[in-house]
Write a structure and sequence with these properties.
38% of the residues lie in helices and 20% in strands. The chain has helices spanning 4-27, 49-71, 76-88, 133-143, 151-160, 174-188, 255-260, 263-274, 278-292, and strands at 32-40, 109-115, 121-127, 148-150, 202-207, 213-219, 240-242, 247-253, 297-303, 308-309, 316-322, 328-331. The structure holds aspartic acid (ASP).
Length: 337
Amino acid sequence: MVTPLKALMAGYGLFSLLASMSVGAVEVNKIAIALHGGAGTITRDAMTAAQDLAYREILSAAVERGHAQLRQGADGVDVIVDVIQMLEQSPLFNAGIGAVMTWEGKHELDAAIMSGRDLNAGAVAGVTTVASPIAAARAVMEHSPHVMLSGAGAEAFAEAQGLAPVDNGVFTTDRRERALERHKAMQSAGLMPPKDHKFGTVGVVVLDASGTIAAGTSTGGMTGKRWGRIGDSPIIGAGTYANNASCAVSATGHGEFFIRFQVASDICARMLYQKIPLTLAASTIIHDELPSAGAEGGVVAVDTEGNITMPFNTEGMYRASIDATGRKTVAIYGIDD
Ligand code: ASP
């Protein structure tokens, strides 16, 4: 006999079944992640097998780590900060530890983060004592009325936000010291500084399970930079941009050009106004517009459907992605990859 209680239970059973299906539906919400570790003169010939493997391992681990968090329903901004921090701590990349050196033999770090949900954004530029510039950028976004803070002010703000200062020397590696020596030697010999285009900036874009896209970028800039030079990475619209109406982009390359061409926001604007797919918008800028100005670099980008594109006009770009279908790529060189 079906008692009212049983009927209620049966109803509840049906309800919980439906609920779990909708929980299931949350799980199958589209998610996607793409990241870069810099673009430049990165060729198979110039890399040892051990170097190649080391890059592939960390790119793979980083993209898996971010994807696992997105699968759990993590917020895109949290994922970006977490994955970029992993890359900032690796000496392989030009961000945090392993950052390139200024003319004076110091490190001045830039970072930015942006959420496509509300166009909220934060950035720091030219910071010297902040262990994780991307964490400081996030603090600017969430705990200040501003978008971009620079230099000593940004450092004081970061410390007030609980980000303990570190000595600038913690970012130094032999490799970057040698790169600065080479740069200076060539400059003082009246030669063009080495085309040190293994830029190594790091950036992450994600589509999270709530349907929001976001982007973040962290860098030490360019070897031998002077006079407080700031690149594109912390400039919203140039090296970093996200808007749920179009796309999320993190760039790497010769920052001066990326600023002039407003690369990140231009890709998104083309999508929006020309109603063209992300891949076409990004490749038009990277393969048509930038080369005509002699500008080298690349981007990683995602849209709210989870489409990913990672074009670059250099020999290589350290990159990895997991798209909305779960397809994973880890790559370094050009099309022969
Ligand atoms: N875009 C960065 C800058 O110009 C450099 C890089 O991507 O490696 O500061």
